[in-house]
Specification:
This is Cubilin. The chain has one helix spanning 270-309, and strands spanning 8-15, 21-25, 37-44, 50-59, 75-82, 85-92, 101-102, 107-113, 123-131, 140-141, 148-152, 158-162, 175-181, 186-196, 211-215, 236-237, 242-248, 257-266. The chain is mainly β and 310 residues long.
Amino acid sequence: MFVLIVPFTCGQEFSSDVSKNGTFTSPNYPEPYPEDVYCVYSFMGRGKERVQIQFTDFDLHLPHEPPRDCDSVDAVMVFITINGQKERVDNFCGNKLPAQLMSNGPSMSVEFRTYHSSPEVKGFRAIYKFVTDFGIYAARQDSGSVCGFNFNSDDRSNGTFTSPNFPGLYPRNTECHYFFKGKPKERVHITFNKFDVDGIPPCTTDTASDYVEFSNFRTVDRKIPRHCGVKKPKVIESDGDFFRVTFKSNAKFDGTGFEALYQFKPYIDPATVKRISSNSTVSTSSDTTDRTYTFLFMLVSLVMMLMINV
């Protein structure tokens, strides 16, 4: 006799109209979840809001080594919408804590599918947030950009800035701008501490690369090359008191992005340094000559006195 096993279905809907943050868990958490479960957790924000998800506990039944894409084992699957189509971000299985995630728009869905159960597993627990700052802190958001941030030397002379959702995976199809404005005769120095931006140099659309771009203007500055991959860029210095950094991701792959240090430093003209160095050399030479003449004068005087006494 053929028996059709229908998975136990469950799920929840979370709206930013109701709450901007909260938690969600697998069924029965922290007790073992049932087998043959299919749950859908839907998140819906508004406007510029993005969904940010951080797993705080993750323990799924895994009878063997994780298969490719966690197929045919208990797993959590995360989806976003790109150009009206449902796209998978990733699947997660086993007991390794997934990276922090962020949607590319105001919605995201998490699906939980089980085939087995075990008295030794707890399932998962996660925190969700609807955010408008893209997980980028310590900066003033630019009102003229969807994802734009202003750094002014009048506020702070140095600090850090990151890609969206750092140190988690940055969201797909996202473009963020970082504007640095120093005082007159100041320069902006950028030093990258961490760098993981999916792509292949020279980071063009032909290679479907995400990238970080630099400019001394609000428009494109063609003399500074784009950067992508895992190799950290060298220290970058602006030509003037304004500098722009742009991060752009496409719809294909992910990375953890970057963390960088910015500093506003006074500009020192090399010509001025050269003049000071030259004047110092001349002054030192003149002082040495004066001391030599003084010594010779004293020596001659001493010899003459000795001769007179004789």
